[in-house]
């Protein structure tokens, strides 16, 4: 019954979630109309969850791996402490104009720092004690990104990884795509990592919530 009504349930959940701001609504619409693979955007429900988490944690510094059109960055930046900063990394230069336009609309230019390039090379150069990390980039490197950040962040840091169900492919990793296999391996790694506690939340395509002990 739940599976049969899943789409209706998500619609109902969105209807009973604080609405998007005007700018986020317009960013969502622009992404869906003009950008390739628009389903990569966090969107209303997941964006509201990220905003809720950030406002609950009240981070000083946030690391985002995978900016896309900056929807999730804008949501998370709303919870930053005074003087805090969100560092976001992406390698798609064609999305910079959209990112900057909507970050400016939200008056977050001084709070969101965009980096264009290879996250594997950029992360080791960052000298921040991140309170919140959001991983939403190329799936085959999730384990590498996690390994780069887990020893850099203090105890209590929350790490959120998106798409960890990968359209249910993780249920059958032997027949999954390379991305599905990579995420199944990532999920197993997190489950077996004694340095953290974790929860896999079946929101949209799956969110792995990880807290460093």
Strands, helices and their partners?
Layout: H1 6-15, H2 22-34, H3 43-57, E1 61-65, H4 71-77, E2 85-90, H5 96-105, E3 112-116, H6 119-122, E4 132-135, H7 142-150, E5 158-162, H8 178-191, E6 196-201, E7 207-212
Name the beta content range.
15-25%
Net shape: globular
* N/C terminus separation: 37 Å
Look at the helices and sheets and give the structural class: alpha/beta
Q: How many individual helices?
A: 8
Task: Name the CATH architecture.
Answer: 3-Layer(aba) Sandwich
> CATH class, anyone?
Alpha Beta
* CATH H-tier superfamily: Vaccinia Virus protein VP39
Mean pLDDT: 96
Number of domain units:
1
Q: Output the helix-strand order.
A: HHHEHEHEHEHEHEE
Number of beta strands:
7
**Helix percent band:** 25-40%
Largest sheet, in brief, is:
7 strands, mixed
Rg, Cα atoms, Å: 17 Å
- Biggest sheet strand line-up: 3-2-1-4-5-7-6
CATH topological fold name: Rossmann fold
**Low-confidence residue ranges:** none
Notes on the structure:
The protein is an alpha/beta fold and 213 residues long. It has one domain: Vaccinia Virus protein VP39 (Rossmann fold), CATH 3.40.50. It is built from eight helices and seven strands. A seven-stranded mixed beta sheet has the order 3-2-1-4-5-7-6, sandwiched between helices. Helix 3 packs parallel to helix 4. The chain is globular, with a radius of gyration of 17 Å. The N and C termini lie far apart (37 Å).
Looking at this protein, list some descriptive labels.
213 residues, Rossmann fold, seven-stranded mixed β-sheet, 8 helices, 38% helix
């Amino acid at each position: 019954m739940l599976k049969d009504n899943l789409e209706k349930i998500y619609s109902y959940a969105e209807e009973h979630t604080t609405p998007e701001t005007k700018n986020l609504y317009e960013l969502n619409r622009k992404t869906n109309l003009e950008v390739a693979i628009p389903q990569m955007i966090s969107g209303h429900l997941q964006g509201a969850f990220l905003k809720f988490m950030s406002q609950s944690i009240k981070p000083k510094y946030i690391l985002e791996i995978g900016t896309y059109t900056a929807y999730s960055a804008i949501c998370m930046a709303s919870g930053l402490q005074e003087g805090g900063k969100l560092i976001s990394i992406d390698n798609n230069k064609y999305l910079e104009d959209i990112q900057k336009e909507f970050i400016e609309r939200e008056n977050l230019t001084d709070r969101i720092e965009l980096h264009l390039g290879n996250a594997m090379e950029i992360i080791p150069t960052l000298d921040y004690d991140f309170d919140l990390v959001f991983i939403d980039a190329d799936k085959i490197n999730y384990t590498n990104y996690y390994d780069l950040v887990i020893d850099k962040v203090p105890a209590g840091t929350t790490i959120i990884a998106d798409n960890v169900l990968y359209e249910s492919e993780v249920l059958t990793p032997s027949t999954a795509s390379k991305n599905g296999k990579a995420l199944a391996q990532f999920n197993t790694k997190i489950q077996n990592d004694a340095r953290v506690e974790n929860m896999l939340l079946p929101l949209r395509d799956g969110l792995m919530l990880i807290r460093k002990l």
